[in-house]
TrEMBL record:
Name of the protein in question: Iron complex transport system substrate-binding protein
Region named Disordered: 33-65
Protein location: Cell envelope
Organism this protein belongs to: Brevibacterium siliguriense
PANTHER family for this protein: IRON III DICITRATE-BINDING PERIPLASMIC PROTEIN, IRON(3+)-HYDROXAMATE-BINDING PROTEIN FHUD
Listed Pfam families: Peripla_BP_2
Length: 347
């Protein structure tokens, strides 16, 4: 079984689940003080025209574990151990000193372009500490809610400041995405740039909301999902209440029709074909990125009679979002998602 990529903490939550709901494709059953070095990057298209300044002031930021990180000057050599923070750094025009899973980032997060020369320090779940130390970072950003995380301890034992971020907040995922971006900006002295990026996001949100209102779609209910194949079974993962991509849809005036149980941080559910068939007339949106390590679950869905009789399928209201939109990303990934919603509902 190969599941779609998860962020580090959502992967841990997923791995601890006691069961995965699947449905056989042929079946019918269901289961319910020097100035910092110039860190401006040319990776982001908008960075080429960026004129914002980088602060040289000392840094004091508090991460999501309540730990205060104090730096004599903004971090210039930052190692990112999760794709969201890699994207955020690039949006801030900061080239990461090293990242976890560079190849995966280029596949699953196309909001920003990672320089090809960027050092890869291994997987996001189990990064190589020696490789991280070799990058000589003045800050490492990791996704964890546990200050006693093994990687955090190993790095701090070597005197490396570590900023631990939760990765998500199901209470207000859009606000959390923006707050996380601001925290990364504060740590790198790039708050002026952050203000511009967030203003662009807010403008995009308002434009997108207006476009959908003017289009007046026949139904505003939707379900966003991804999935994977497990033998002859297909499993689906709806993004329900508390998910970033689901909340972005609701910010546009749409209604997330998935009411099943979801995890409290990421808003992710688990279901099967019959389970998702119970959402009525909702539009279906799904991740369009081809997973190089997995069979195409969408092609297998098309062979299932239950799937074929779902209203959204029968009426051609299923839309794959463009490849490379990271559903756990920052402002730029979120802008991509907004564009995808608009394109799907105004075509």
């Amino acid at each position: 079984m190969t599941t779609p990529p998860l962020s580090r903490t959502s992967f841990a939550a997923f791995a601890s689940a006691t069961a995965i709901c699947t449905l056989a494709l042929t079946g019918c059953g269901t289961t319910d003080t020097d100035a910092p070095a110039d860190t401006k990057s040319q990776a982001s298209a908008s960075c080429a025209d960026d004129s914002s300044t980088t602060s040289a002031d000392p840094v004091s930021v508090t991460d999501d574990t309540g730990h205060e990180i104090k730096l004599d000057k903004p971090a210039a050599k930052v190692v990112s151990l999760e794709w969201q923070y890699t994207e955020d750094l690039l949006s801030l025009c900061v080239d990461p000193a090293a990242v976890a899973d560079a190849k995966g980032f280029t596949t699953w997060d196309t909001a920003e372009k990672l320089p090809e020369s960027t050092t890869d320090v291994g997987t996001r779940q189990e990064p190589n500490v020696e490789s991280i130390l070799s990058a000589d970072p003045d800050l490492v950003i990791i996704e964890t809610t546990n200050r006693k995380d093994k990687i955090v301890g190993q790095l701090e034992d070597q005197g490396i400041p570590v900023m631990a971020m939760a990765g998500a907040d199901g209470e207000d995922p859009v606000k959390y995405m923006k707050d996380t971006f601001t925290t990364v900006a504060e740590a790198t002295g790039r708050t002026e740039r952050a203000e511009t990026v967030l203003a662009d996001f807010d403008e995009k949100l308002e434009e997108s909301k207006k476009a959908i209102a003017e289009a007046n779609p026949e139904t505003t209910e939707f379900v966003y999902f991804d999935g994977w194949v497990n033998g002859s079974n297909v499993a689906l993962r709806p993004f329900g209440q508390g998910s970033l991509i689901g909340e972005l849809g609701e910010e546009l005036g749409l209604k997330n029709a998935w009411t099943g149980e979801v995890d409290p941080a990421y808003g992710l559910g688990q279901t099967d074909i019959e389970g998702i068939s119970k959402v009525g007339d909702a539009n279906f949106f799904y991740t369009g990125t081809d997973d190089p390590e997995s069979e195409d679950y969408v092609e297998l869905l098309k062979k299932n009679d239950i799937w074929a009789n779902i209203p959204a399928v029968k009426e051609d209201r299923t839309t794959a979002f463009p490849s490379g939109i990271w559903t756990f990303g920052g402002p730029k990934s979120s802008e991509q998602a907004l564009d995808a919603y608009v394109d799907a509902l105004t075509k």
